[in-house]
Amino acid sequence: MNEHDSETMAGMLNEKGFEPEEEKNNADIVIINTCSVRENADNRFFGTLGQLKKIKEANPEFVACVCGCMMQQQHIIDQVKSKYPWVDLVFGTHNIHQFPQLLDNVINERKKIVDVWQDGGAIVEGLPAKRLYDFKALVNIMYGCNNFCTYCIVPYTRGRERSRRPEEIIKEVKELVATGAKEITLLGQNVNSYGVSKYEDGYCASEENGMDFADLIYALNEIEGLERMKFMTSHPKDLSDKLIQAFKDCDKLCNSIHLPVQAGSDNILKRMNRKYTKADYLVLIDKLRTAVPDMAITTDLIVGFPGETEEDFMETMDLIEKVRYDSAFTFIYSIRKGTPAENYEEQVPEEVKHDRFNRLLERINEISGEINKTYEGTIQKVLVEGPSTSKKGEDTLAGRTESGKLVNFPGSEELVGQIVNVKITQGKQFNLKGIIEA
Ligand code: SAH
Ligand code: SF4
């Protein structure tokens, strides 16, 4: 979500004639787009912001901007104002569309501006974006979140759920395909509730034309020239049988799903306000694998939620054995100010959290490696994303299978952006190796 917001701001700057500059000391403007999901990101923000002071002192024309989720929290704005008074522009997640105007005011009137909206307000369509890649694109289908998981700051920083009109999404995807996009990833905090949430004028896709998330997938699947569709993120409590059917019916929908489970213990899931049990989740996995046997499943896991006992943690370990995830993002619980879990007693000691995290990660990685081994000898359709970052010279290209696996293989850079057949020669823990199949 933040990455796509950054693309939008880059697009706006591009329209104003600015160009990207790798070295921040040489830049006229720096924007720090912040994330507040975990504490680590908060800490990195203040460290990075501090580094801009020297540039500002050396060059009074330099413009320092900060935006994103952290700015939606008053205590952060207060901290920026008191400790970093030289920052020129502060804005939030709800008024990104105003960024060009705010920047003009800062530059022309030489004043400092703090403008953060507390509410979601209108969805503004048609904003420019400077995409990182031509051949794959992120597409927001909705904004905000209504779920209030007790550990999570997102509903407070991104506001209530609002869905874009289906016709706007379809139009955007068609335009992207016309300019070379082969793959799109639909974005929302919980895409499964797409259409249910209201547009700013009260318009509700599912009430007016019965359009829900699965219907949107079916509609996008019709777009000629589009090759691959993915989405994130999908909340298990709202994953419908209709969407599972769409995986069978829609040839462009990739055989992969990111289905964050967070924890394996029913007690912890309840206290996280996730609204499903471990058994409910396993039923979903079973349905998905019955519908699409080679479905790659990935997840998010939190260890050390307040009150998590060793038995609770063992439920998470048991769950990963049962599901056998292709990969997982594993997080150590971090207290977020203003969330219900901030005040839960029985916070888990740091060393216990780290120990559990390490045990979990080790097993997750082993399972990933075992699954990757089963790809050996198969032929995969790979979207070539760019030159490989692998140190060993011979694997010059990197790309992704339909199931989202990273593959390194030799080939010419002209293939970037193309879909090629690759024979997998080796399944490693974090990626696959292969050779192009003629
Ligand atoms: N809307 C998405 C998640 C957005 S946040 C969803 O519901 O799946 C991405 C991930 O960050 C979450 O899935 C969760 O695993 C993690 N996360 C959120 N808040 C956290 C916290 N306070 N501490 C640790 N991890 C957290
Ligand atoms: Fe956070 Fe839960 Fe909303 Fe995801 S669904 S953004 S974890 S509150």
Automatic annotation (TrEMBL):
It is found in: Cytoplasm. Keywords: 4Fe-4S, Cytoplasm, Iron, Iron-sulfur, Metal-binding, S-adenosyl-L-methionine, Transferase, tRNA processing. Its main location: cytoplasm. GO terms for cellular component: cytosol. It comes from the Bacteria. It catalyses: N(6)-dimethylallyladenosine(37) in tRNA + (sulfur carrier)-SH + AH2 + 2 S-adenosyl-L-methionine = 2-methylsulfanyl-N(6)-dimethylallyladenosine(37) in tRNA + (sulfur carrier)-H + 5'-deoxyadenosine + L-methionine + A + S-adenosyl-L-homocysteine + 2 H(+). Its cofactor is [4Fe-4S] cluster. Binds 2 [4Fe-4S] clusters. One cluster is coordinated with 3 cysteines and an exchangeable S-adenosyl-L-methionine. [4Fe-4S] cluster binds at residues 145, 149, 152. It is an enzyme of class 2 (transferase). The keyword Transferase applies. Belongs to the methylthiotransferase family. MiaB subfamily. Monomer. This is tRNA-2-methylthio-N(6)-dimethylallyladenosine synthase.
